[in-house]
């Protein structure tokens, strides 16, 4: 038992597994690093962390119940997020050599980009509402303290994961810059994946 969290080791293992699953956040992190180097990747990592913290505490506050009660509000946010991801993907797919990067160069912009991508996925709120109770012991739960420890754990693991992905992506990117055709192909592939994530978000129930 750790601050009212049952099986803390399994909780950590589950978060690491979820972090490794490909998704818009991972794609934003990789793209940000390839465009802005280590500062861009760290900016995106902090953006993902900030977005996750907002969604986690909204889940704790019961916002998922409100979204379930008003399906129209949930659908509106869902479609907004889908359109945003698809727009980013289209911009990356249609970009020509020499065009300004879809993700801006300043780390603060990478932060904002990753934050927006994370927040525009309302299903994450429902996920946290379903996920947290799996590791809460009703007999030893410490209220907000337990949730705060969970949130801090997720933030710390996300930062370590993001830092590792940033350094790895930067290392590989430095070796690919000598092959512009490969870089262009990867950008188009990232664009296709973003469009796919947008379509999946819009059509999944």
Note the topology.
Blueprint: H1 8-20, H2 24-60, H3 63-69, H4 71-94, H5 107-119, H6 123-131, H7 144-176, H8 180-203
Helix pairs in contact: 1-7, 2-5, 2-6, 2-7, 4-8
Order of helices and strands: HHHHHHHH
The counted number of beta strands is 0
Number of domains: 1
Please mark out the parts with pLDDT under 50 across 5 or more consecutive residues, or reply none.
none
List keywords for this structure.
205 residues; mainly alpha; 78% helix; globular
Can you walk me through this structure?
The protein is mostly helical. It has one domain (8-203). It is 78% helix and 0% strand. It has helices spanning 8-20, 24-60, 63-69, 71-94, 107-119, 123-131, 144-176, 180-203. Helix 2 crosses helix 6 (123-131) and helix 4 (71-94) packs antiparallel against helix 8. The protein is globular, with a radius of gyration of 18 Å. 34% of the residues are buried.
């Amino acid at each position: 038992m750790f601050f009212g969290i049952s099986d803390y080791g399994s909780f950590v293992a589950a978060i690491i597994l979820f972090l490794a699953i490909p998704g818009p956040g991972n794609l934003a992190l990789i793209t940000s690093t390839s465009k802005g180097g280590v500062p861009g990747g760290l900016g995106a990592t902090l953006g993902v962390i900030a977005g996750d913290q907002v969604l986690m505490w909204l889940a704790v506050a019961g916002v998922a119940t409100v979204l379930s009660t008003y399906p129209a509000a949930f659908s509106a946010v869902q479609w907004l997020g889908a359109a945003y991801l698809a727009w980013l993907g289209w911009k990356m797919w249609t970009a020509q050599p020499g065009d300004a990067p879809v993700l801006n160069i300043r780390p603060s912009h990478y932060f904002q980009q990753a934050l927006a991508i994370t927040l525009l996925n309302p299903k994450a709120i429902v996920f946290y509402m379903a996920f947290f109770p799996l590791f809460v012991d009703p007999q030893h739960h410490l209220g907000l303290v337990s949730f705060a420890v969970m949130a801090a754990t997720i933030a710390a693991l996300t930062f370590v994961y993001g830092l590792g992905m940033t350094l790895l992506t930067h290392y590989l990117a430095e070796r690919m810059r000598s092959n512009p055709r490969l870089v262009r192909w990867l950008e188009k592939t990232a664009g296709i994946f973003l469009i796919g994530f947008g379509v999946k978000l819009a059509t999944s129930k």
